[in-house]
Design a protein that fits this description.
It contains eleven helices and nine strands. The chain has 292 residues and is an alpha/beta fold. It has two domains: 206 residues, Spore Coat Polysaccharide Biosynthesis Protein SpsA, Chain A; 73 residues, no CATH class. Strands 1, 2, 3, 4, 5, 6, 7, 8 and 9 form a nine-stranded mixed sheet that branches.
Length: 292
């Protein structure tokens, strides 16, 4: 199994992230390789990673340094170098919460294993996100309506990847990755009572940048529409059109009145569209054409 950790100027958090790898028992560590991709850090991140190597033994830890190219590129670099049959993606400000090898030994025939994610802010527990059971039949229904998989909630087979992370997205790149790789979910097993990682919410999270999120949401939705095209049902197409318009709202742009008429679509997604309108003063510079 390969754990891929992209690192960019993470000197405040990377030590805790690496220490969390010691939650893997010594007997399981030999079955794990860790690939740390230093994405052009200009702080002390690399030195911290190097200082932690001995304490992580017998984990096989590789460090790859590249010029700063962004999160998607760093993950792609890790995917290109890893040798494990299964992949687990862990960000440099989050923590591993369990021993993944014990589950892989029991469910080695699965294409993906889904776990719960626990969110924390200022060391205080917040919400828990449970895994969604996804298969080839419901894959597009789910992912056109929402990004149903948090990156570090899933262990998946490397040989099921057909499309790497899109490097021109600076947010929601994982949504597009899961959507473009349906084979990952062909035989998925979920463990709703098992937490795989702790996600730390802070001001540096990309989700705090609404304009970046909006640009990426619009771009990703339009890319999925183009790639799947005739394979999409009417509802799936409408979901993606609504996603695109939400992206425009997040960028502070106006959207046409016809967005209200995109039915059938996910009710949850439609309500999100309305919510952004109602919360426009708190979220960003949102606007609509007259008539809303």
């Amino acid at each position: 199994m390969s754990i891929i950790i992209p690192v960019y100027n993470a000197e405040r958090t990377i030590s805790t992230t690496l220490e969390s790898l010691n939650r893997i028992p010594a007997g399981s560590k030999e079955a794990v390789e860790v690939i740390v991709v230093n994405d052009g850090s200009t702080d002390g991140s690399l030195a911290i990673v190097q200082s932690k190597l001995q304490s992580l033994q017998p984990l096989n830890v590789s460090i790859i340094t590249q010029t700063n190219q962004g999160l998607s590129s760093a993950r792609n670099t890790g995917l290109g170098h890893c040798r494990g049959e299964f992949i687990f993606l862990l960000d440099a400000d989050d923590e591993l919460a369990f021993d993944p090898i014990s589950y892989l030994q029991k469910y080695s025939d699965a294409t993906a294993l889904g776990f719960s994610i626990r969110y924390s802010k200022n060391t205080s527990p917040r919400t828990i996100k449970r895994p969604v059971r996804i298969d080839l039949r419901n894959h597009l229904n789910i992912f056109t309506a929402e990004n149903a998989v948090t990156v570090s909630s899933l262990i998946f087979r490397k040989d099921r990847i057909r499309s790497y992370f899109k490097t021109d997205l600076f947010s929601l790149e994982d949504w597009l990755f899961w959507t473009m790789n349906p084979a990952i979910f062909e035989k998925m097993t979920v463990f709703p009572r098992v937490t795989s990682a702790v996600i730390h919410i802070h001001g540096g999270n990309m989700t705090a940048d609404y304009e970046t999120m909006g640009t990426s949401r619009e771009k990703a939705a339009e890319f999925i529409l183009e790639q799947y095209n005739s394979k999409l049902t009417c509802k799936q197409k409408n979901n993606l059109l609504v996603q695109s318009q939400i992206g425009r709202l997040l960028q502070g742009q106006k959207i046409p009145l016809m967005t209200l008429m995109l039915f059938p679509c996910s009710i949850k997604l439609y309500l999100k569209l309305i919510m952004y309108r109602l919360l426009k003063n708190n979220v960003g510079r949102f606007g609509f054409y007259s008539g809303w």
